[in-house]
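User: I'll paste a sequence; please echo it back and then give the predicted structure.

Assistant: Echoing your sequence first, then the prediction.
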Amino acid sequence: MVEWLLLAAVVVLIAANATFVAAEFALVTVDRPTVSRLSETDAKAASLREALRTMSTQLSGAQLGITITSLVVGFIAEPSIAALLEVPIEAVGLPEETASVIAFTAAFLIATVVQMVFGELVPKNWAIAEPLKVGRAVVGFQRAFTWVSRPLLWFLNGTANRLVRAFGMEPQEELASARSAQELGSLAARSARQGLLGEDLARRLEHSVALGERTASDAMTPRPRVRFLELDQTAADVLDAVRATGHARFPVTGDSVDDVRGVVHFKDAVAVPAAERATTPVAGLIRPMRAVPSTMPLGPVLEVLRRGVQMAVVVDEYGGTDGIVTLEDVVEEIVGEIDDEQDRPTRAYRELGERRWSLSGLLRPDEAGETLHLELPEGRESDTLGGLITEELERFPRIGDQVVLAVRDESRPDDDGLPSPAQARLTVTRLDGWRVDRLTLAVEDLEEGEQNA
């Protein structure tokens, strides 16, 4: 009879252990903004919010409860189960000593399995799957136990905190809920892989949170690709430039390209009477244009472009013109390439076959990687694929030169869902002076030995 009463106590203790485990995992995994929103109208959610504000203390209380219940279960469950098993085992005809050993071993296994399954694993998995529901259900019991155990927890937490400080770290009462831009970007990518977000939306979110990490030089059109006009040119020259390039705005220079005086818009040239366009100088049509340093993050650049003319000259550390950046350039860093009625068709990317492309040498590695679903390495000093090839060759490239880079192929994930290792073979196919104008990129699988190296 005593053994059965003890087993009933074991069931109660395992239930208490399960409650502590559920509380621990629910507190760690529950969505705080959701709890805060519900706490305005739901008493249990309000209690859960209070528990989250003293996270460290509540977790200590849960761990104390788990420790106590586990020890007591082990202390009374095994002898009780062994006593109940010993009689039927002896009835089989085994010696008393042998029956005692078998009964104790069986009792140990039974108690361990029941405790692990019902006291640990089931509540853990339930709390991870439904943290809000579980948290609301167990928070009252958890907070009450923590309040009763407060003196002991104060001593245990104080001792642990002193040890933590001895290692140069400051204990925190609440779990950090704020996330860095990099963490938010990783969260968006992970959500897309799990099918919770569309790929386009996840990519825009990643680009948005990474905007502060990119600079004006990342988004600008470099100086060699910019069509400049001079002060002594005319409104007719502006319209000729519009027809030749499809652009609507052009920076206007004075003595040199490093002396940018402003910007002229094609609408101002069109407003000039046709008979006077050939004699109306650009100097009378220009508007002021802001200048930004090449190292300015794109967030502040966006604010500059929103306040005035949607074009700014990018200035390098020596005061020279590095290129120009427009509002469209910054927006494209978030949403991707924007084609409008003024854009000329571009062939920055051309697919040549399976996992093989012809690319512009002026593409940035991250731009090419995003389109080709590859993780390409960045150059040490250069910003473009052509510059990356020059860095790897350590000389000016020639047609036919090849560079092999270690990459990760996002289109072929490994067993863990991560981009698989591969190699990209970059071949120079066309030059523009000293610069790589076109190249081919071919993705090749690694040999098994190289993958394991």
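The first helix runs from residue 2 to 29. The longest strand covers residues 419-432.
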